[in-house]
């Protein structure tokens, strides 16, 4: 079940991002996370705008833009902004998120060329009324068991000359110095390792899961597409973080604490709890050295026939 999460951050996040882990499990309640998904995507809008401007150099007038795994539609609406002559279709498996997407499009004045399709990927793409000039999948592919087959299905819904753009990979985000002044240095690196393990479990538990080398240009080529391209975009929100960035960091670390916190040793767990305690002067709510730094990679390829 691929549901959108355009919050775009770390490679594999049990907190939120690639997977919104609940407890030790890997089930994801996307509707519960709607508010977080929206606020994250809004915070990360500079990255998306830069990526869309890059895509627009090769796809200036796509006609139909499909956001495959759109979530609440923040990035879908950015597509409508970036491509003012295009029709945009947000596709997602969670109907309440699509309702939020439609409401956002109406508020922004693009509702007349904005549609939604509810259903699981990639099957829901079969309900499009025409092929896409640009199909965008932002960290939705890795929620599908057979990624190679899904990419072939995505490619099959492109118009001749249409582009598939896949946001996968990048680098784990950083929010804090290596040495926090409390606990053992290197906490975020240890959280990254636990999140990688969580992501591997999530992938293994998907229906029809197939292990795949994550060479995205090679997988795009195997799907019959040509002219692969790759570019990485940087989000750099330096310290001291503003309230919106600080709220994102707190929400992210809270989800990580819920998802993988029990796997931490006692010292790291205590450090994380202090970081999340608003009354603690060392918490991310007040400390002056909180920042957001991340790198997000987009892979593209074109249908030739």
Overview of the structural elements:
Helix content is 36%, strand content 20%. It has 305 residues and is of the alpha/beta class. Strands 1, 2, 3, 4, 5, 6, 7 and 8 form an eight-stranded mixed beta sheet that branches. The longest helix is centred in the middle third of the chain and has 19 residues. It is globular, with a radius of gyration of 19 Å. The relative contact order is 0.18. One of its GO terms (biological process) is methylation. InterPro entries: Methyltransf_25, SAM-dependent_MTases_sf. Keywords: Methyltransferase, Transferase.
Radius of gyration: 19 Å
Given as residue ranges, the uncertain stretches (5+ residues, pLDDT < 50) are: 1-26
Computed structural class: alpha/beta
User: What proportion strand?
Assistant: 15-25%
- Counting DSSP E segments of at least 2 residues, the number of strands comes to 8
Mean pLDDT: 90
- End-to-end Cα distance, whole Å, is 29 Å
